[in-house]
């Protein structure tokens, strides 16, 4: 369901298997396990890039698994389970001791978009793929940490309104203008190349990972509090 490749100081996490990469309990657990492997191997200059295979970056939570519970109560309980179990993934990305890049080569919807926004940098393609928060269309409210992360990562109130309250499907160039992603590229291959290119540039900085992580957490205090992430001050020996 996902693989991890190490190229020098670059870690490449690839979502594999099911084309939609629905965030089922199994995929959530697999991603968490993979991030633990990354943390165990991190060195100065490490960078993580997340990519996917197929049409989707991720199409959100596995709603079919929730509905398979056979009752409204059971479905709601399963959806709540996925919402809660996804929290540690967002928390891990916000506390990883390295820069992170999402190469969004396909559709990123609902929790799949949250997965992308959990990274420091997001690139997407302009020829195919959209960003989409489906909750308004399917009749679900947003978990508090979803709202906090989106508010922290997307500064424009009008962009948040279009995304969350209008359910607009946003393509690459428009996502750049709205401040949701860093850049849009012509095709999947160009997105991957741009992500690797930035990753290689960042590896040269040789930042101390623990310091990087604490600065990142300091930028997003509300979502970090909701996720239970502790923050601490660090003074390096060079001071």
Automatic annotation (TrEMBL):
Q: Which reaction does it catalyse?
A: a (3E)-enoyl-CoA = a 4-saturated (2E)-enoyl-CoA; a (3Z)-enoyl-CoA = a 4-saturated (2E)-enoyl-CoA
GO BP terms, alphabetized: fatty acid beta-oxidation
One molecular function GO term is:
delta(3)-delta(2)-enoyl-CoA isomerase activity
UniProt-listed PANTHER family: ENOYL-COA HYDRATASE-RELATED, ENOYL-COA HYDRATASE_ISOMERASE FAMILY PROTEIN
Q: Which GO terms describe its cellular component?
A: peroxisome
What protein name applies here?
Delta(3)-Delta(2)-enoyl-CoA isomerase
The keyword Lipid metabolism is assigned to this record: yes
Pathway the protein contributes to = Lipid metabolism; fatty acid beta-oxidation
Family, as annotated? Belongs to the enoyl-CoA hydratase/isomerase family.
InterPro entries in the cross-refs: ClpP/crotonase-like_dom_sf, Enoyl-CoA_hydra/iso
């Amino acid at each position: 369901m996902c693989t991890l490749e190490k190229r020098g100081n670059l870690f490449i996490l690839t979502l594999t298997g099911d084309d939609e990469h629905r965030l089922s309990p199994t995929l959530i657990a697999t991603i968490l396990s993979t991030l633990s492997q990354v943390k165990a191997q991190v060195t100065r200059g490490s960078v993580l890039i997340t990519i996917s295979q197929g049409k989707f970056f991720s199409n959100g939570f596995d709603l079919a698994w929730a509905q398979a519970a056979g009752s409204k109560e059971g479905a709601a309980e399963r959806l709540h389970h996925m919402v809660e179990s996804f929290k540690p993934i967002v928390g891990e990305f916000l506390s990883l001791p390295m820069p992170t890049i999402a190469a969004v080569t396909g559709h990123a919807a609902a929790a799949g978009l949250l997965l992308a926004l959990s990274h420091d940098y997001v690139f997407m393609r302009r020829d195919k793929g959209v960003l989409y928060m489906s909750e308004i269309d399917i009749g679900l409210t947003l978990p508090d940490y979803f709202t906090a992360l989106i508010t922290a990562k997307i500064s424009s109130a009008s962009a948040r309104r279009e995304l969350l309250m209008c359910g607009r499907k946003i393509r690459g160039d428009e996502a750049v203008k709205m401040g949701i992603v860093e850049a849009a590229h012509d095709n999947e291959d160009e997105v991957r190349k741009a992500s690797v290119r930035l990753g290689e540039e960042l590896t040269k900085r040789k930042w101390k990972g623990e310091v990087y992580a604490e600065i990142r957490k300091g930028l997003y205090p509300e979502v970090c509090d909701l996720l239970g992430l502790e923050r601490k001050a660090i003074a390096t020996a060079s001071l």
